[in-house]
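INFO batch 0412 | record 1 of 1 | parsing
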Amino acid sequence: MALSKFTETLIRGFQTSPNGAVGHHRVALRVNQAIDAFNGLNADTTRSRSEKAPLYKQLQEQHGKAIKADLDKFGNELLARTDAHEAKVAKVLNSVSLADAVQIVAGLKAAGLTAEQFRSAIADSGEIAVAMARVPQALSGLSADVATAAALNHYPDLLAEAAANERDFSAYSSLSNVVDRTIREIGMNVDEQALASRFDESKLSPDAAPKTQAEQNAAAE
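INFO prediction complete | emitting tokens
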């Protein structure tokens, strides 16, 4: 199966953030480099299949290691950004104390607001929206997911950041599949049987001081 290189259009990922594009680009360049080497080795007519076996093995191991290292770096960067984003969300959701949140929501309910008025209050006030997300569902009448989403609607920068992280994780997942497929395809060209029977070239050099049986016996005593 022929391996396809990343084009200039997709080498930075699809709809990735600026940070995500950098990580994706780094790994994609590694993949393209490995494919160039793989194609060059395939096209080499001066070597037999058995002669190419150790070169395919070397290509798989060395390029695979370099690609995986950059892929791991990309993944760790995404995890760090996700942790930072979640910390921002937690700060927003804790900007109203639980005691204040209960008082706010209880006050709205005591005022006899209609369901429509409740929705309008949540949409108009970030403080009320956060309060609804803080109190138990039994008091707010909203599930945790719905209440949190309503609160975060007042923070478009956090919503945009979450969407960017999601796109970057999607790009990372696709890239990871490409990496696995590339390394696996290179490995399929490794002739293990040829490698097993290959002469160890290090044996071409004579031992510095071969020992006689008597010398070996003396050393063992």
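INFO post-check: The chain has one domain: 17-193.
INFO record closed
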